[in-house]
Amino acid sequence: MGKSEMRSTNYLFCFLEIFASEGGIQSYVQDILKAYLSITAGTNSAPQAEILLLRDSPDCSNNPYESKNLKFYYLKTQRPWFGRLKFATILLTRLLQKRPQRVFCGHIKLAPLIQILCQPLGIPYTILTYGKEVWEPLPPKYKTAMSKADSIWTISRYTRDSLRDSFASRTCEINNLNPEKFHIVPCTVDENIFTTGPKPQDLLEQYNLVGAKILMTVARLRSTDIYKGVDVTIQALPQIAKTFPNVKYLVIGRGDDRSRLAKLADDLGVTERVIFAGFVPTDNLAAHYQLADAYVMPSQEGFGIVYLEALACGVPVLAGDADGSADPLQDGKLGWRVPHRDSAAVAVACVEMLRGEDKRCDRHWLREQTLARFSFESLCQSLQGIFQPSGSDKLMP
User: Could you say which of 137, 142, 314, 382 has the lowest number of CB atoms within 10 Å?
Assistant: First the structure.
């Protein structure tokens, strides 16, 4: 196989981790890999991709994406510095030996290294961006890496616009950053997993929710992720309870912030209303969404895949009003958007949602509107131009 042919039939993906922990980024990346396999399935000329995982190990998960078209390198080591060295070594080796058509940088933290290694070799690279990791002003080495990137993916208009504004005010003139480098590659929801249905009786009994009006959040409960707004929702409960005395709040997720949240509930006298369910596997999440009368997460998200999951289950949704949730909520068409640290606004919106009189509480309509825009097929269409077997390397805006 000649060099030009090889360059048109292989890609290299670089990620921090996609199996060792759960979260929106991990879910999004797995959807990208699933789309890749779908687009290249059943062809003899399918691109061959290799994936470097800095913080994943072979035993961290059962990897459903291993195939003849996807080869994984697990680079987690007991000593983090050795893992980074191993990652850099294998990355350089693959660049020199395979000369990939494109490198996909799965996190801004990896961008400077990828820029340093790819640029001298003339290998284009794409940086994937999600949300808060690129909303703040970036140090010079990250700005340079982004300015030299051939393209930049974002998952929402908010992240795209935040990046454009940041670079326009700080580096566009210096580094000649082309706004056309930015491309939105949407998140997606599995319509076969997240479906509408009656409230599961066994879960109602398990969580002591029979006869209750149920608010729900799915989020990491880490002290570094307070922006998710679980505390704000707890603070809103006393006001909500004045209208709905039977209201309860089901919190799904795990993390070191749970004790603080439990104490807050106790201080506010709503301990009996807040149920901490802990971690729930994806296979069981849909049944939990079906419990909810309203999904509440007044957060600051790059996108918020959980909003899609709730909407696909026909659950009314509340989100923040200054983040990427504008996309899954379709600018408020499908849900309530409130200031993310305003418990009074959250209380007012929750009362409206629990009353169920608004169009945004029509469960069939919510699911229909969500799947029309954020199905797996829509993601595949967005990626067809880069992953199609013909070797075309053009990204769709």
Answer: 137
Q: What are 54-103's pLDDT values in tens digits? A: 999 887 657 889 888 899 999 999 999 999 999 999 999 999 999 999 99
Where in the sequence is the domain holding 225, given as residue range(s)? 201-374
Q: Write phi, then psi, for 161 (nearest 5 degrees).
A: -70, -35
The answer on 347 and 382 residing in a single domain is no
Instruction: Give pTM, 2 decimals.
Output: 0.88
Please give the distance of CA 134 from its chain centroid, rounded to a whole number: 14
For the chain, the domain total comes to: 2
Alpha-carbon distance values, 197 to 189, 283, 367 (Å): 17, 15, 12
* Cα separation, 316 vs 296, whole angstroms: 9
Instruction: Give the DSSP per-residue string, 318-355.
Output: EEESSSGGGTTTTTTTSEEEE-TT-HHHHHHHHHHHHH
Q: Sign (positive/negative) of CA torsion 346, 349, 351, 355?
A: negative
Q: How far apart are CA 310 and CA 314, in angstroms?
A: 6
Domain check: are 312 and 169 in the same one? no
Q: Are residues 380 and 370 in the same domain?
A: no
Torsion of CA 278, 23, 282, 275, to 10 degrees: 20
